[in-house]
Amino acid sequence: MSEMSVQNKVKEFMQRGNRPYSTNDVQQSLGKEASKSAVQKCLDELVKENVLFEKTYGKSKIYCVRQTEEAKEPGVDLSCRIETLMSTLAELEKESDKEKLYLRSLLSSDTTEEIERRNAQLVETNNRLREKLEEYINEEKTPETVDPKELEIVRKRKSTVVGDYRKRKRVCMDIVYQILEGYPKTKVHLLQEIGLEDDPQDMPNFA
User: Fold this and answer.
1) Which among 18, 94, 105, 122 is placed 20 to 30 Å from 206, CA to CA?
2) Does residue 159 share a domain with residue 129?
3) What distance, in Å, lies between the first and last C-alpha atoms of the chain?
4) What per-residue confidence (pLDDT) applies to 70?
């Protein structure tokens, strides 16, 4: 399909609908007849020709037919703005839902469970060694009587688990902050909704 044909179809669709549309909305209406880049080019051209006007809300651009003086009705600008905001909100909610699903799948992955299991083992080992150390001290023995090889194994395991834990937490929090860009509530509400703990008191103690 030629560029002029695509532009005519885009113009016809916009005038027939006479409401705000995003580039994706217009492209989906044309199906395989035109690519998204071709539709975007036509929309930009129609804006230059004053057939359409463009509004930007955050990262989204919405296009609407420019009303002539004869066609204008009381409240048309307000109605257009309401439609635009509702369309933008729907897109943000859809994007937020996708991010939530991805975050939940990440948090429930086998890798996270493995880290939690290894962390529990590490805590148990540390507690056991502390008990041994206290016994040695109470018996007036020096800490050097603890097997150095065993201590070295614990240190290495601790270093590995701490690194994995912090890496996983950093990835999770990066995703959380991305969701917050379009999330209508606070960070605390989001963390409660997805079941993610961020309170230092609830985090493992790696000291």
Assistant:
1) 105
2) yes
3) 66
4) 40
56 CB-near residues (< 8 Å, 6+ apart): 62
Domain-embedded: residue 100: no
State what percent of residues in the chain have pLDDT above 70: 72
Where residue 1 falls among pLDDT bands split at 50, 70, 90?
A: low
Calpha distance 53→71 (Å, rounded): 15
Over residues 32-46, the pLDDT tens digits come to: 888 888 889 999 999
Domain membership of residue 121 (yes or no) is yes
Question: Is 106:172 a contact under the CB 8 Å cutoff?
Answer: yes
pLDDT confidence bin for 150, thresholds 50/70/90: confident
Last residue of a domain, one of 91, 126, 151: 91
Backbone angles phi, psi at 61, to 5 degrees: -115, 135
CA distances from residue 176 to 106, 119, 150, 165 in whole angstroms, order as listed: 12, 23, 39, 16
Angle at CA 28, nearest 5°, toward 14 and 180? 100
Examine the domain organization and report whether 34 and 118 are in the same domain. no
The structure's pTM equals 0.36
Q: Quote the Cα angle for 112-114-117, to 5°.
A: 110
- The domain total for the chain is 2
Q: What residue numbers bound the domain in which 83 lies?
A: 3-91
Do 199 and 193 meet the contact criterion of CB atoms below 8 Å apart?
A: no
